[in-house]
Amino acid sequence: MEFTKGHGTGNDFVLLPDPDGQLDLTPELVAALCDRRRGIGADGVLRVVRAAKHPDGAGLAGEAEWFMDYWNADGSFAEMCGNGARVFVRYLLDTGLATPAGAALPVATRAGVVRALVEGDVVSVEMRRPQVYDSSAATLGGLTLTGAVVDVGNPHLVCVLPAGVDLSALDLTVAPGFDPTVFPSGVNVEFIVAGDPVDGTDEHTVMRVYERGSAETLSCGTGACAVGTVALRDAGRDTGVVAVDVPGGRLTVTVTADSCWLSGPAVLVATGELNPTTLRP
């Protein structure tokens, strides 16, 4: 089995080329691939398959040639992954499966079609505008933190830390608690504080995230979009540009009237072959 390893601001993925949808990809194999000691190690798996060849992408084949079949590190599915989409596009271009064009490159996902633009090392993807709903709460280490419920094609809970709570000191080795009646399929929980002003942006936010199915990650693209939208809302703005610092680097979120652009570096770091039979439990 061929593979490529890539990441976007430290949010890392194993990419599996499978144009015709022939790989026997199972939750057990995905979890084994993502194991950082016995496998390759990653926050998730991106299967690169033609939309027409995957049942979840076939309905979008008229809009996009390629479908991003994204799996969390524990072998579960996710509707969308912003950094994954950016790394996916880098792979399509670097392997010649797609060619740069003046127009944005469409990619099919379980959350619909996203568009991507590439400028040097920076890959930007346009996704749906995040929808902010009522509040809910997360519990962590004896803290109960109120947060905004946000839909970015996948569920998020954005919690602004109160004064006196150190973002870097949060223990995210344990999953935050949440209300399962609000999030029956689980939720990505973001913890944020305001950052110092950054030139060219309207707001600056510093974030850590616990992703469902992957635990704490160095970055989360859809989480950054959720955080950027909440930061703008709290500042009394409907649109704008937000710098979002994550442990793995900096992402830029641009919220428009009808969409959200996520921008940042996306790199491929290794290619190789693996024997899947050695990874199975």
From TrEMBL:
Enzyme active site: 81 (proton donor), 81, 220 (proton acceptor)
Recorded superkingdom: Bacteria
InterPro entries: DAP_epimerase_AS, DAP_epimerase_DapF
GO cellular component entries: cytosol
Pathway(s) this gene product operates in, as recorded in its UniProt entry: Amino-acid biosynthesis; L-lysine biosynthesis via DAP pathway; DL-2,6-diaminopimelate from LL-2,6-diaminopimelate: step 1/1
Stretch forming the signal peptide: none
Compartment(s) of residence: Cytoplasm
Entry keyword annotation includes Membrane: no
Stretches that traverse the bilayer: none
Annotated binding of substrate, by residue: 11, 72, 82-83, 154, 188, 211-212, 221-222
Swiss-Prot/TrEMBL GO biological process terms: lysine biosynthetic process via diaminopimelate
EC number from the UniProt entry: 5.1.1.7
Predominant location: cytoplasm
Keywords, sorted A to Z: Amino-acid biosynthesis, Cytoplasm, Isomerase, Lysine biosynthesis
Keyword Phosphoprotein appears in the UniProt entry: no
Enzyme class of the recorded protein, top EC level: isomerase
Gene Ontology molecular-function annotations: diaminopimelate epimerase activity
Reactions mediated catalytically: (2S,6S)-2,6-diaminopimelate = meso-2,6-diaminopimelate
Residues under site feature: Could be important to modulate the pK values of the two catalytic cysteine residues: 156, 211
Pfam families linked: DAP_epimerase (PF01678)
General function of this protein: Catalyzes the stereoinversion of LL-2,6-diaminopimelate (L,L-DAP) to meso-diaminopimelate (meso-DAP), a precursor of L-lysine and an essential component of the bacterial peptidoglycan.
Subunit structure: Homodimer.
Similarity comment: family membership: Belongs to the diaminopimelate epimerase family.
Protein name: Diaminopimelate epimerase
Species this protein is from: Micromonospora saelicesensis
Name of the gene this protein is made from: dapF
